[in-house]
C-alpha cells in the first residue's frame, strides 16, 4: 500500500464536547482510544477552538519571528529561569543527527507570578510587541489549547476505564507549554537537515495547529515501516501522545516518532504545538495503581537536566533520581 493511501484517523470531538444523542460521547472515546492505540496520533475536528483564534495565533507567530534576529536573541530561553522565550534556528541537535534542526521556536508557559520549583512555574517573557497584536491573542489561544489538551487527557482516561475525577489532582497546576514554530524553506543542498528531526514528544498530550496548506509533518507508521505525510488542513488539529502517555498506559497508547521537512516551496511554514503534561507532583492517572509513583516532575527533570540545572529540593520533591 502506498503511504498516500493511509491517513491518520479523523475524529469529530464535538460528539464529546457537545453530545446530541446517547452514545455520542462513547463513540468519541472509542475512536480516540483506537487511534492512539494504533497510531499515537489523530486529526481532530469539532475541537471547539474558533477559527479566528487560530488565525490570530498564526498572525502573532508571524509578527514575532519577523522581529530582527538581534531583538529575538535578547529574549533567549537559555537566559530565562523558566525556559521561556526564543530558541534560535540551529540550537537543537539530537544525538545521531548530522545537522541541527532548522526551525526557530518561542516558548510560553504558565503565567505564575514568582519563579518556583526550578522555574517550572513562573512568569513568561513577553516580546516588546503591542499587547493587542501579540500577548492578548497568544494568551487567549494558550488557554483554549490548555483546555483542549485537558479534555483529550480526560478522554484517554475514559478510554481505559478510569474516572475523569482523576483529572482534579492531575490538572491542579498543570505544566502546559506552548511552542510557536517557524520553519525556513527546506534546503535540498543540505542533506540530513530537518525542520525538526525524527523524535517522539517526551510528555503528555500535544495539540498541534499547522498553517493550512503548509505541509511537512510526517508520522512513522510502524506497520508499513514508512513515513506517513500528514496534511496541514484548515481548522483540523493534529493530536498526539508523548512518551509519558506511552509509558504510563503500559503501551496501550503509542508515542509515535515524527519529523518535519517543510514541503512549502521557498516559503516558511508556521505551526504551534501546545503540550499538556500535568501537575508537577501528580502521578500516573492512566494507571492509578501504578506502583512506581513516578511524577510528571520527575519525567520533566529527566528530560531537561542535560540542558538546564534544577535545584536539589525540587529534584527530591518530585522524586527524581539525585
Ligand atoms: O510543527 C510541527 O508540525 C510538529 C512540531 C513537533 O513535532 C514538535 O515541536 O514536537
Ligand atoms: Fe513533536
TrEMBL record:
Domain Fe2OG dioxygenase: 173-278
Pfam families tied to this protein: 2OG-FeII_Oxy, DIOX_N
Key words, A-Z: Dioxygenase, Iron, Metal-binding, Oxidoreductase
UniProt keyword Amino-acid biosynthesis, yes or no: no
The UniProt record lists the keyword DNA repair: no
InterPro entries: DIOX_N, IPNS-like_FE2OG_OXY, IPNS-like_sf, Iron_ascorbate_oxido_reductase, Oxoglu/Fe-dep_dioxygenase_dom
GO terms for MF: dioxygenase activity; metal ion binding
Superkingdom, natural source: Eukaryota
PROSITE patterns, per the entry: FE2OG_OXY (PS51471)
An example Gene Ontology biological process: small molecule biosynthetic process
Family note: Belongs to the iron/ascorbate-dependent oxidoreductase family.
UniProt xrefs under PANTHER family: 2-OXOGLUTARATE (2OG) AND FE(II)-DEPENDENT OXYGENASE SUPERFAMILY PROTEIN-RELATED
Listed name of the protein: Oxoglutarate/iron-dependent dioxygenase
Amino acid at each position: 500500500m502506498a503511504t498516500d493511501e493511509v491517513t491518520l484517523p479523523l475524529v469529530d470531538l464535538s460528539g464529546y464536547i457537545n453530545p446530541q444523542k446517547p452514545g455520542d460521547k462513547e463513540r468519541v472515546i472509542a475512536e480516540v482510544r483506537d487511534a492512539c492505540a494504533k497510531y499515537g496520533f489523530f486529526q481532530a475536528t469539532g475541537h471547539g477552538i474558533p477559527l479566528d483564534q487560530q488565525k490570530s495565533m498564526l498572525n502573532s507567530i508571524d509578527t514575532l519571528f519577523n522581529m530582527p534576529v538581534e531583538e529575538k536573541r535578547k529574549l533567549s530561553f537559555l537566559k530565562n529561569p523558566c525556559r521561556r522565550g526564543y530558541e534560535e534556528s540551529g540550537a537543537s541537535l539530537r544525538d545521531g543527527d548530522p545537522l541541527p534542526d532548522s526551525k526557530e521556536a518561542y516558548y510560553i508557559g504558565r503565567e505564575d507570578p514568582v519563579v518556583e520549583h526550578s522555574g517550572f512555574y513562573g512568569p513568561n517573557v513577553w516580546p516588546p510587541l503591542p499587547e493587542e497584536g501579540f500577548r492578548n491573542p497568544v494568551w487567549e489561544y494558550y488557554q483554549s489549547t490548555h483546555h483542549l489538551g485537558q479534555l483529550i487527557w480526560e478522554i484517554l482516561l475514559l478510554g481505559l476505564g478510569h474516572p475523569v475525577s482523576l483529572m482534579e489532582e492531575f490538572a491542579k497546576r498543570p505544566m502546559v507549554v506552548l511552542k510557536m514554530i517557524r520553519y525556513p524553506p527546506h534546503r535540498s543542498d543540505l542533506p540530513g537537515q530537518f525542520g525538526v528531526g525524527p523524535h517522539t514528544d517526551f510528555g503528555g498530550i500535544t495539540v498541534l495547529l499547522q498553517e493550512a496548506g503548509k505541509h511537512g509533518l510526517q508520522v512513522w507508521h510502524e506497520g508499513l515501516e514508512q513515513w506517513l505525510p500528514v496534511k496541514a488542513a484548515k481548522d483540523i488539529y493534529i493530536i498526539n501522545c508523548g512518551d509519558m502517555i506511552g509509558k504510563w498506559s503500559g503501551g496501550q497508547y503509542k508515542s509515535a516518532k515524527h519529523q518535519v521537512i517543510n514541503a512549502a516551496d521557498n516559503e516558511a511554514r508556521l505551526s504551534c504545538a501546545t503540550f499538556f503534561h500535568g501537575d508537577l507532583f501528580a502521578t500516573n492517572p492512566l494507571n492509578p495503581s501504578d506502583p512506581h509513583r513516578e511524577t510528571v516532575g520527575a519525567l520533566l527533570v529527566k528530560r531537561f537536566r542535560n540542558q538546564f540545572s534544577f535545584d536539589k529540593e525540587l529534584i527530591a520533591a518530585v522524586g527524581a533520581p539525585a
